[in-house]
Amino acid sequence: MIQFLLNQELRQEDNLDPNLTVLNYLRNTLTKTGTKEGCASGDCGACSVVLAEVVAGSLRYRSVNSCLTFVSALHGKQLITVEDLKHQQNLHSTQQAMADCHGSQCGFCTPGFVMSLFALQKNVEYYDPAQTSEALAGNLCRCTGYRPIYQAAKQTCDDQSGDQFDAQAATTLAKLKAIEPASNTVLTGKQHQAYLPTSSQELADLYCQHPDAHLLAGGTDLALEVTQFHRTLDKIIYLGNISELKEIEESDTMIEIGAAAPLTDCYTVLAKHYPDFGDLLHRFASLQIRNQGTLGGNIANASPIGDSPPLLIALDAQLQLRQGDQTRQVAIEDYFLDYKKTVRQTSEFIEKILVPLPKLATFKAYKVSKRLDDDISAVCTAINIEVSAGKISTARIAFGGMAAIPKRASHCEQALIGQAWTQATLEAACAALAQDFTPLSDFRASKEYRQLVAQNLLRKYFLETTSNPDHLITRVTAHV
């Protein structure tokens, strides 16, 4: 049985199919049709809702795509939909702002925009265009009504007078603490099960008992099996209630990131130490996806075009894998074996990602895609080179989109190490890339394009690290 708040109403569900998404639960089970289905893949944002949960004794509000969120993820949280915003026959300030600024045209996307604006208002103290762009990047309006929507965002963020959710915060906190997740929770429906462990030990035991289960963290990739490919997941183990897997800790030498930590949380620490990693996470996907998707999940699904693995490989990151009571560490570059194949054994899962803190090397990352934001890479590369006494002492260069797995460019690295960091050395390294990769052509890019882009990204790194930064701008910013 799962328990959660639907606004202020306590819901207890013990007979729901774990394959049921929050979107379909709202529309088909509760007949709350304000939340719309646009794409069922997390691209359009029409289905956006807000989840509130207790974090460090306070309520944290985050927007998510209900089309990619299974009902098991609601356990112990508050679900807020567009129907919940109106209070005592008065529109919420976010709704009123959309009306005042004429931000709604055909209206289909409006509920999603309203919910994203609601979450934005709860997380800022004043209007900021960059924060607004980030908050709304996952909401698409085909009527091209963005200018009045941005005006509505300004009106919304400038209004910090409070609302019914602020007035009820103490009550909400008490209700959520009374239903906080407990061990041995199972949701069953239509002969399918979702197990909801609350500790790494419980997860390890469950996974050994059910090695055929699907591990569900954010679900931004796994949910597509249900919503796009119409497959059924017989057993799910949901990781979102395991606090250990969501912890992020820093030591003098290492960043330890729990495998189920949302990308939104990973951003803060990674951007502090590696600004390019932070810039890439901004482009990784929409805020709704980053609020759910996890760094561990992006690694575990072993996609050849996952954005984080090349960066982690270039940083010499390690994975802590766990099977039962046994743990081991594996270099992330050794984790990937072949297309969608890894070294993970039966019932073994990623517990932590261990990222070394910066040393003397200069780290940069680049993503090439058809759209700037919320798009899959054609080529993604991370370059980490240290120059000492005029010569290259270490080089770690990794690519995604160039092979069946994220992979280091070993021939390119060898062409660099021990050489002076000059134009001639650069061109030799670019030529060596042809020995490292034989890329494929697909609908994102041709093999010739990928090969040339890979070489040009290495040239770009050379220019950025050897030219006067005051006179060279090679980056396209996310907010223009």
**What spatial order of strands do you see in the largest sheet?**
2-1-5-3-4
Indicate the low-confidence ranges by residue numbers: none
Helix content: 25-40%
Task: Report the C-alpha radius of gyration, rounded.
Answer: 23 Å
Q: Tell me how many strands there are.
A: 20
Oligomer: single chain
Overall pLDDT, averaged? Answer: 94
Strand content: 15-25%
CA distance, first residue to last residue: 48 Å
Based on secondary structure, the structural category is alpha+beta
Shape verdict: globular
What is the number of helices?
Answer: 18
Q: Largest sheet, described in full?
A: 5 strands, mixed
Model description:
It is a single chain. With 480 residues, the protein is of the alpha+beta class. It has 18 helices and 20 strands. The strands form five sheets. Strands 2-1-5-3-4 form a five-stranded mixed sheet. A hairpin with a 2-residue loop joins strand 12 and strand 13. It is globular, with a radius of gyration of 23 Å.
List the helices and strands and how they pair.
Blueprint: E1 2-6, E2 9-13, H1 22-29, E3 48-55, E4 58-65, E5 78-80, H2 93-100, H3 110-123, H4 129-136, H5 146-158, H6 164-167, H7 169-178, E6 185-189, E7 192-196, H8 200-209, E8 214-216, H9 223-227, E9 235-238, E10 248-250, E11 254-258, H10 263-273, H11 275-284, H12 287-292, H13 295-300, H14 308-314, E12 318-323, E13 326-331, H15 332-335, E14 336-338, E15 341-342, E16 349-356, E17 362-368, E18 379-388, E19 391-400, E20 407-408, H16 410-416, H17 423-436, H18 447-466
Helix pairs in contact: 2-5, 3-4, 3-5, 10-11, 16-17, 17-18
